[in-house]
Amino acid sequence: MDNIDLMVLKALRDWRLSGQQALLATVVRTWGSSPRPVGSMMALRDDGRSVGSVSGGCIEDDLIATYTRAIGAGRFPEHATELVRYGIEADEAHRFGLPCGGTLELLLEFNPATDELAELVTHLECGALLQRIVDCQSGAVRLHRNEQLQPLTFDGQTLSNPMGPGFRMLIIGAGALSEYLATMALFNGFAVTVCDPREEYMGAWSVPQARTINEMPDDAVVAFKPDSGSCIVALTHDPKLDDLALLEALHSKAFYVGAIGSRRNNQARRQRMIEHFGETEKSLVDLRGPIGIYIGSKTPAEIAVSIMAEILAIKNGVELPQEVLVEKAKHKREIVRWTAPRQVDNPRLSLDCP
Question: What is the β-pairing status of strands 141-145 and 41-45?
Answer without folding.
Answer: unpaired
